[in-house]
Specification:
The protein has about 475 residues and is α/β, with parallel strands linked by helices. The chain folds into two domains: about 210 residues, Periplasmic binding protein-like II (D-Maltodextrin-Binding Protein, domain 2); about 210 residues, D-Maltodextrin-Binding Protein, domain 2 (3-Layer(aba) Sandwich), CATH 3.40.190.10. Helix content is about 40%, strand content about 10%. It contains 19 helices and twelve strands. The strands form three sheets. Strands 1-3-2-4-11-5 form a six-stranded mixed beta sheet. Strands 7-8-6-9 form a four-stranded mixed beta sheet. α1 packs parallel to α16, α2 runs antiparallel to α15 and α9 crosses α11.
Length: about 475
């Protein structure tokens, strides 16, 4: 019921537009298969077939080898399980390449530009389609057989030409919230946190610091800037709501400057306050996403700000840990910012195995293999005939409280998706601010300069 309810809501309210943050779950592949941290590429011995509707393939059929690239944060251990099952039933073999997050975007762009491409790669879609030149560099999948089974095909259609370039992993993604260790907060004297104002949120952090000084109140992984940006990416549109769409439109038309909007500065100041008051881990500048997961799951840190995939990863590796979630009350309001994107599987035009890759994607989409994913990682399937299982209760509570009631807006990355190719520059500036390298004014002025240059090169109206 939970799965059906959220998918219906997303269809009704218009998740038929476009994109990112962030991000997948389960960053660590099973030992012995792929060492993501060292970016070692290890071939997984899998098997493949033709379309599921074709007659059964025998062991005598010719073997096909495909390369499947993804980033460390998007990788899911379930991928290997699904691929192994396909291997037993068919004759396609997959080499998974799991690439560190800070290298992934640039590496995919370089590979697309040089033609040295994997056969399949994972990327946010559709609002990051422009970042990889999907229309020019990847195969149009609009007429593939799995399209008619999609729950929300409009969500993954390209905003420019309406084509589908990435096969979605899920039907909805990114419920941005604070995911916390229940026992850690309980030890600090906090039960069922539900801050109604930003001051109350800061009070929770202060209570952890005062009552359990050995515990980091909120773990920040600024070594992965995609995690750093989440506070602003969610907080700015919530603080601006209900005028966020209008204001972002004015920014896109150069009718407003980023330095003209006091609410943006306010959110950044709140972010900086968390660091200035010592609520974060001392090694935040070099800390990575996986370290945040481990710290919160084991109680060395009380909280982290991320998407639901972080909770799923922690529950997967530490199933006995009690977790919960609450939304930061930016603008002193109860509202959640969500993603308008999903993870998509793309096939590059330069792949020498396009037809084989298409067959593999069709197999990957089938209920029998999708079930292997959702059996251990419940969620919201992209396909109507797939059972997503029982989602984590605190994630369901977020959806019931905010999505079902319409108390949500879209993250800034989605509402200004035209800037997807350069968001990383702004994220770097956020880290520079909390590292004392830039002031807030300097960071916003530098970002405005980069926006002006980028939009001018695009020939965007107003620039």
């Amino acid at each position: 019921m939970m799965k059906k309810r959220i998918l219906a809501v997303f269809l009704v309210i218009g998740l038929v537009m476009s994109m990112a943050v962030a991000c997948g779950s389960e960053p660590e592949p099973p030992a012995g298969e792929v060492d993501a941290g060292n970016n070692e590429e290890v071939e997984a011995d899998l098997d493949t077939d033709t379309d599921p509707d074709d007659e059964e393939i025998t062991s005598e059929n010719e073997r096909v080898d495909l390369v499947f690239a993804t980033s460390q944060s998007k990788w899911r251990a379930e991928y290997q399980v699904m691929a192994d099952a396909i291997a037993r039933d068919h004759n396609i073999h997959i080499e998974f390449q799991v690439i560190p997050d800070d290298q992934y975007i640039n590496l995919i762009q370089i590979r697309l530009a040089t033609g040295e491409v994997p056969d399949i790669f994972e990327f946010n879609t559709p609002t990051q389609n422009a970042m990889i030149g999907a229309a020019e560099n990847t195969v149009d999948l609009s007429n593939e057989p799995w399209v008619e089974r999609l729950v929300a095909p409009g969500l993954v259609r390209d905003a420019v030409d309406g084509n589908i370039y990435g096969m979605p992993r899920e039907a909805a993604s990114f419920f941005g919230a604070v995911y916390y260790n229940v026992e850690a907060l309980r030890n600090a004297g906090i039960e069922n946190p539900d801050p109604q104002t930003m001051e109350e949120f800061m009070d929770i952090l202060q209570a952890v610091q005062d009552n359990t000084p050995e515990v980091t109140p909120i773990f920040m992984a600024d070594g992965d800037t995609w995690t750093t940006q989440i506070f602003m990416t969610l907080g700015i549109p919530v603080t601006l709501y209900p005028n966020d769409g209008d204001i972002f439109g004015q920014l896109e038309r150069n009718e407003l400057q980023w330095t003209d909007i006091p609410e943006i500065r306010t959110v950044i100041e709140q972010f900086v306050e968390i660091y200035e008051r010592g609520f974060v881990n001392p090694d935040h500048g070099s800390a990575r996403y996986e370290m945040a997961l481990e710290a919160v799951a084991t109680g060395r840190a009380a909280m982290m700000l991320n998407g639901e995939w972080a909770a799923e990863s922690m529950m997967s590796t530490h199933p006995d840990t009690l977790l919960g979630a609450f939304v930061i009350p930016w603008g002193d309001r109860q509202m959640m910012a969500v993603g308008q994107f999903v993870q998509g599987l793309f096939i590059p035009n330069e792949s020498p195995n396009i037809e084989e890759a298409k067959r593999f994607l069709n197999l990957w989409s089938q209920p029998e293999y999708q079930a292997l994913f959702y059996e251990t990682s419940p969620g919201f399937p992209a396909f109507a005939d797939v059972d997503g299982g029982e989602v984590l209760p605190f994630v369901e509570e977020l959806v019931t409280r905010f999505i079902d009631t319409g108390l949500f807006t879209y993250q800034i990355n989605d509402q200004l998706s035209v800037l997807s190719p350069i968001w990383g520059d702004l994220w770097d500036n956020y880290v520079a601010i909390v590292s004392g390298i830039m002031t807030i004014d300097e960071a916003l002025e530098d970002w405005q300069f980069r926006v002006d240059d980028f939009m001018s090169q695009l020939g965007a109206p107003g620039f």
